[in-house]
## 1
Amino acid sequence: MSAAAPRWAISQPRMHWTLEANLAETVAALEAAAAAGAEGCVCTELALTGFHRRLPELLGGDALAAALARLCAACGRLGIAAVVGLPTRGEGGAVFNSHVYIDAAGRECGRVHKRGLTPSEATFFTPGRARGWTALGSVLATSVLCRETLDGAQLLPELRAALPTGDDRQRVIFWPSYIADSDVEQAALCEAYRAGAAELARELQAWVLQSNWAESLNEPSHRGFGAGVVVAPDGRISQVLARDAADVAPVTLHGR
């Protein structure tokens, strides 16, 4: 008898200025995902801090580490895995834009650091290095952060080479984002992002789950946020989340 298809959820949250409020938003998404029978929930880029101009103010002291510990505890309490964006620190004071993997027992089991930084991000974050795959419950997962879906020429050979031999778990690419179809230029760019995600899905025979912010605090009048996509392994968009609205959407990941 074949194993049941994995069921994950996508969080598309409201953004807040404070760490405490973003943590509460994230935990609420995990609770909704667990109630929907998901084994895990993917959360967006810099989910714990928010992606806004006050982000540097949230990195002092131990508050961010404490928030991550509380999130891990919530995963253990709910019996659900989570993949969540937050800044992390490296050697020599480096700060990474990271996607952190937490298993259903509440243990951190992997990190992906964003390498394809925008010019503004590069003034604050340090680029990450090569990445591979993380075994997370019934899936084999990696993350491609926001505009990195345009970097398939670099990522595809790297991710192909890192695939573990003989692991037949469903492959999932988490795509945490902060993008919007806010004008004609941005709409064209978002379309290119989605085309890049579809190429990654086809070439790696993986599901792509996009977790995008539902709004911008820096530009509160902008619209076109949310609308995260689910891309099937054949490159087809199989689901689109709500636009300009918070959402938690369960997704069943049928075979490649």
## 2
Amino acid sequence: MLSVIQNPPRVALPIVGSSDLFPVRRVYCVGRNYAAHAREMGADPDREPPFFFMKPADALQIVGSEPAKHIYPPKTRNYHFEIEMVAALAGGGSDIPVESALDHVYGYAVGLDMTRRDLQDEAKKMSRPWDTGKAADGSGPIGALHPVSLIGHPARGAITLTVDGETRQKGDLADMIWSVAEQVAYLSGYFDLQPGDLIFTGTPSGVGPVERGQRMVGAVEGLGDITLDVV
């Protein structure tokens, strides 16, 4: 049986130390998972349970070891960076216990949740979905995956972002409100998680706008960094 249109290629991430690829299924993103960031966005981190939104898998921009050109999207004048650690699942299921949740994680990568903040803010005010703010083409820059077999499960370490050499975001993985294991377990109560799913695990405080012509460098301790030139 033939497809009536050409099948689009499946997004796949490179893997550190291997020529194999990690095919991506879904991309989940947790909101306000660092206390200081929750406060800067006007939320109370001590009371709010986790919430998630999605990006399309083909909104990912795979970034190698060299600087990549990142296209400033249309229909925004307030385009924000959010540095995040990304967890990639090799297993899944429903109602996964917290105690075994990390058994389903294949590896970790550096990622950015790029956001058309003006469109997101407008959607919030009108109680509409965030898709136009969060799901722009290329809005999920991501580096190569580091397998758990090589690095274990990062639970602490610096997570930073610089713009033109100036530090704009600086936090520690240990400051997450909800750990990676808790995020996996919580999500699996709502979705049947599958191999190939990614979870963007939240951003520290300091999110802000970036302009054309600027260079962003996002880094997570133990996972290296990714560099993007905004064009």
## 3
Amino acid sequence: MASSSVPAPRPHRPPLPNVAFRRLRGPRSPAEFAALVRRAAREIGERVSCDARYVGRVEAGEIRCPNYAYERVFLHMFPGRTLTDLGFAPRSSVRGRAARTAGDAPGTAETDGAHEPYDTQDPYDPDDRHHDDEESDVLRRAFMTGGSATVAAASLGPLGLSLDASPAPRPRRAGAGQVSALEEAVRRIRLLDDRHGADGLYRRATAPLRAAYALLDAGATRQATADRLHAGAGELAISVGWLAHDSGRFDDARSHYAEALATARLTGDPALEAHAFCNTAFLARDAGRPREAVRAAQAAQRAARPLGSPRLMSLLALREAGGWAGLADRAGCEQALVRAQALFGRGPSDDDPEWMSFYGEAELEGLEAQCWSTLGDWPRAARHARRAARLQDPHFTRNIALYTAELADDLARGGRPDEAAVAGTRVLDLLDQVQSSRIQAMLAGTARVLLPHRRAGGVADFLDRHASRPRAV
């Protein structure tokens, strides 16, 4: 006899689109709107990892009611409106959540669901119901960050499974909850890299990657979940590969990108394939293999063409331009740059991948600056690098340091040592917040160029301060 506590089967009903929320987004792309949500969260001291996919799930009606952190952010963004005005269901009506009364303790409301990116788990969904609490805790520690992002390495502690020295048990078949945690890990790694650079993150980020591929080996309960799992594991491999790339571990980065590419080919995922080839092209350029950079960028463009994202095609054209610059092919570089600018000018679209949130006008200028620098056109490179640093959102500390380091080097090589010293000093001011071997290597090169110009204004102070910094391990 069935227990009365077990709910009767319910028919599947597709979610209703949230048209009210879609109207609030207006003409902005999902990625642009997600950036506004993250900015609003920072204004009130909240931490959310909103991205284009989250916005899409809200608008599709998959998220009937946001968790408490998102609720506070949305109500801050749209003062005077209620959750119902924003198209959400009343919290008390959402199954899987205990209804709260006005007398609930503030601590309860603040902590319940605080680590759940999407408030969509349902106790009646077999994808979520058949995983015991112990396994869920292990996977949560594997994939979710905790604490403040002020010190990046410390906040990645839970990602590295450092709370338990014993090996994690082999996971059962993955459900939607595990895949959501994996996707959230990718977003948080990217966020921490934007703020702090890669050096303090790479070693800790390899543990969730191992856990992700253990989940792949275990399989998933549904095909849709399996597709998300493969895409998430591939994106995590690319993110970890980028951390290796930016911290100077090129062989490790190449291995991680190849792993992501293999996953993309295995599952026929053109978006993941384009991303893997994009990063492979960037790595090949930095590693002194410009012809490989051109080939990888062209392969990325072939994979990305059906995806319908001009911004993605623009970025890939820039990757190709970097390869041509490395080959000293000015004509090939200029043609790719013109193509990149024209594609960028078409504006954002709903088909832009969520990982491209970093690619705006500042990054376009910064990558063009690198091309002209490689070709030895220092004045032109400096102009673009200066624009990049000026246009960059202050949230992206690492990129501000990167563009300013590029500017310092271009000015130094272009015969303007005093201005180079000023820019280099600004980078030194940021290195307490940013840990990037790539940026430190650029600054070391600038210091070498400036050595014969010690008597120029500000150069001696810059060189002395640079020399006094501890060297990266």
## 4
Amino acid sequence: MRAFADRQLYPPVILAPMAGITDLPFRALVARFGAGLVVSEMIASQEMVQARPVARDKAELGLGIENTAVQLAGCDPYWMAEAARMLEARGARMIDINMGCPAKKVVSASGTGASGSALMREPDHALRLIEAVVSAVGVPVTLKTRLGWDDDSLNAPEIAQRAEAAGIAMITIHGRTRCQFYKGRADWAAIRAVRAAVRVPVIANGDIVDAASARAALAMSGADGLMVGRGARGRPWLLAGIAAAVHGGPRPHVPEGAALADLVAGHYEAMLGFYGRDLGLRVARKHLGWYMDHAGTDATLRREVLTAVEPAEILRLLPGAMTGQSARRKAA
């Protein structure tokens, strides 16, 4: 993989920023298995500077996670620059600028402003944001975007060239337009035009869920690395497995049975510790559901786990849920 700034990102397999998913407990777990970089949830820059608790929680870096990027969204150069300075001071190794989120509340003026993928329709304004962030910090600044707003405006190569000239150190391209949201298939081949337009590392993103899709994405895009998102839900070891399959090195041990139950219990308790009991219970349900999808949990037992309201009861049910036991079991 090409170097950026004064660091070498290796293995070049990156955890994508995912709202409500890539919080500190999950990033720590993925990093423990092995990933070149983990990226925080998208953080609204103005909310970060104004000390909104939700934004500060999303930006929490934790201890022992060295390769962490924090992703910023916004539409005002001042707030973007100030938030980037704060994040660098808190220990962020990189700042990633969001130009790819397709959510209506992000791309409309009623949310965080015309930010996210809406910036692809205003390249001049996008460049002002990029320049403000790059000039504000000493750490590498990266960019995550899409192929374009729609099929009639596939301007990612042009934006990438201008971003590189402004000091962007790495560019991640999700192989869809904003108007596709997450429908259809990611067009990895279309990323090749961005790869040809710039010298900085280009990362391919979209529909990378296993070693086979990782190899295909690299071959079709010509990218320098990969970003993995939804495929990692319930499989925090996935990035390490892809890195081993594509780039060599030891394969991670994929936990099963009792080992998986222990891992999930640890993740569950970390979420309760990070969010507090009530919010932690709500946040944890989706992660528990994804783990049970992977484990093939019996439907009745799955329902019990997801409707339990006491942490002790959930922890009691997890060994059976992760080892494929039937819901008809003796009470512990």
